[in-house]
Design a protein that fits this description.
762 residues; mainly beta; Methylamine Dehydrogenase, Chain H; Jelly Rolls; Rossmann fold; 7-stranded mixed β-sheet; 13% helix; 41% strand; nucleotide-binding; actin-binding
Amino acid sequence: MTEIYSFGNLPVIAHAWNKDRTQIAVSLGKNDVRIYHKIAGKWKLIHTLCEHLSRVLAIDWAPKTNQIVSASADYNAYVWTLENDVWKPQMVELQRTSRAVCCAKWSPQENKFVIGSSDKNVAICYYEKDQRFWAAEMIKKKPKSTVTCIAWHPNNQLIAVGSCDYRCRIYSAFIKIVDDQAQTSNWGTIKNTNELLYEFQSESGWIHDVAFSPLGDNLAWVSHNSIIFAVSAKNPSQIKMEITNYLPFRCVIFINESMLIVGGHEFSPLIYNYDQDKGTIEFVEKLDRQEVSTGRSSIGRRFDQPAMQTQTPEPISTHQSMITQIVPYQNENGNLVKISSADLFGQIVIWNLNDKKEIVIEAGQELRGDVDETLTLELRSGKAEIFGTELAIGQKYQFTSGMKFSIFTYWGCTIISSHDDYYVARDENPMHIYLNVHGMLEQLRQKAESEKTRGPRIMVAGLPDVGKSTLCRMLVNWAARLGRTPILVDLDVGQNQVSIPGTIASMVIRRPASVEEGFRIEMPLVFHYGYKTPGENIGLYNEIVSSMAMYVNIRSENVEKSLISGIVVNTCGYIRQEGYESFKHVAKAFDVDIIIVLDSEWLATKLISDLPSVKVITLPKSGGVVPKDAAKDKFRENKIREYFYGPKNNICPHVFTIEFNEIKMYKIGAPQIPDSCLPAGMILKNPYNKILPIAPSAALVHHVLSVSSSNDPEQLLAKNLLGFVVVQHVDSDKRTLTLLAPQPNIKNKLLIVSDVLFVDLK
């Protein structure tokens, strides 16, 4: 189980945990140290340590003595002690240091610490009880360039030092005042204070981090040229070097005597195995995945057509920027079982190294689950798919809290899971039936291809929460895997797969949906509705369905591949009274050939009677489908948040102010007035699509506004949308609105007010 925490948008330069990991000290690139306390799963700032005059570069927290050492670019280091809930600083006497202090680390016994600086100094610091100050013993044979990293040997009397002169050195850190007597280590006999025991030459590139193994028998370091070095105390003259194809590493840490983790510009921690007997360093696996995606990150850029084109590829991983530091989080029997890593985007991730559980799924069975916390799944062997998207062997898939997943296998497979938020369904499931429907549709496509005619047009209908959206996703995914390009039309205004709530949308499916993030959004066609259910304005709903059908039909008729691949229409679960009439309207507007009804004999019977020219197929719902009334609001909120911030919080939206006179706002649909309130003989025509101008007011705060592509208010219903903004503040005195938007401005100033709300708590 991976835990992800955000501490804002500032870079985490350094972080350290207290003894029970309920508090964390972080440096966010400023001249203070911030201490957060975890309360009810959230981090609350409780202390700010302000004494440094420049950026804090290093922090270490001694768990037993509960003291913090901080080092800064202001040439100073401080030891912080908690007294009466107040952290009190004491400066370390670093008289010979005249440049930035780059690193600081407590010894295993916490009776001393070591610092390294830009002026090549390495100082072993200890507390003078008689004088009551922190003294520093300087290393005499110091490095020839900036000291970048330090590591303590488990015996408390050796240190490893890395620097920008391409060398890693092992020094004696024996202090007679502090240590009882010098010890004999596996790296040799310690005789004198500050003695240089070993000096290891790297190939090239300054050294970023160094680490001893838990028993101290092995030493590893990483350099800026993407090379991992390791050496064993058994044979110090044999330095093993592993040249990698990854971006430069910034940190290294041992899990046990042979396994180590490196991280840096690659965004993902990597596990390597060091075999001291064979003298080899071999790659094992990534803790995270690293892919390239161009789709969902552009979902927030729908303000003009060029912005909807494929964007520059960007990495998708738990970390979205360079990993700055990896530190131990939890040990068991001397080995690391959890680590934490920090990055430049303010994220700290806790990785569980021993959380894999093997699940064997037999042919025809399904692995289902609701994710309470972040869950990682990996296909180890066999073949399996999630909602029609095939899983890749060895690829890690991450599901966040609130998500549901269903892994089905036709052949049998083995899954590795990070924890047990799942169960294997051995009951009868309709997956084979769904696949047979796909086979039938593919036969119709092949026939249309040979005869140069239109491919199948399918509408999926049923009661709420029977799996309509999932079935549509599977059908288009299976088609895309065969090279087809069907058009997916999603008319579900409450839980739309393509756009945000309060809209209907369509798009051409050129590739299967991502397992974790859904469809890659490329040039979608989106129409404004403004409500979360069709029943709130059924007349308006039917009218925009007609507009959508017109555009989809034009697209289908003008692109042969789309014409042959057909259309899949997803509908709402509103099937009673006027909702049923709306179903018939949808079927006629899109000229569907086949209606698939899920788990509703009543609806199927009615449609067969009323639409005799359409083939109606009744299918059972999956046993994994459950009512989700309580989760719908959360789903809608996440969908809107994803639009502005991206599926991985990898988009930074803009907040800007615009004057009242720069925009025009409208509301579609007038309230229905009872006939008894109208003058005698008067008939009010089509109030559902009446376009009403709206004056900016405080009542608009948190409302989602649609940005129309139309320049004429009378054409709002007939034109598609360019994007969305959210009203964050209305200043009536200054006559300005503050908007949250994916771009720093809006090109079209014609906005449509929606009843959908979004409160940005990020």
